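A quick aside before the break. I want you to see a complete sequence-to-structure record at least once, exactly as it would be stored in a machine-readable document. Don't worry about memorizing anything.
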Amino acid sequence: KEFQLLGAHRGGTLGVAGWNLLVERRLGVAGSTPWYAGRPLMVTRNNPALDLFNGDVGLVVPGGESGRMDAAFPTGTEPRRLPVSRLEDVATMHALTIHKSQGSEYRHAVVVLPERASRIVTRELLYTGVTRASEKVTIIGSREVIEAAITKPIRRATGLQARLG
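That is the input. The structure line, written in tokens, reads:
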């Protein structure tokens, strides 16, 4: 896992969906087919029948038979291959949300923040994005958005204070 683009939001100008589309346009595959060789995938819902679980990552590869595409998922030795026609809940991950990246590590992570401060861009979210990088992190965002994130801790409405008080 050399490199990953991480976004604070899924939608919007600088959101993950827009970055994924931009990469696909640059690759010349946008709109042509959802299944193209080299498409990085992340499983978004458990599928015990296929032994796939939320957060598993794979790559679309040629299947060998007349144009068939497979998804290859790393295992201990050889990648496990499944025809893409069997996949249900997967997302493209040229870019992914910081939230979905939790538990992963990349040599170089690029954290893309929105153009304006947002209620979800908190100190904890920024920390999570930055700590996905093992060697190098690049933060793309205005000084104002970064400062707002650093000074804004997450507030949880748990009701714990009322129960203890």
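Two observations worth writing down. The domain at 95-150 is CATH 3.40.50.300 (Rossmann fold). The beta strands are 3-7, 40-43, 57-62, 69-73, 80-83, 90-92, 95-97, 106-112, 133-140. We'll return to this after the break.
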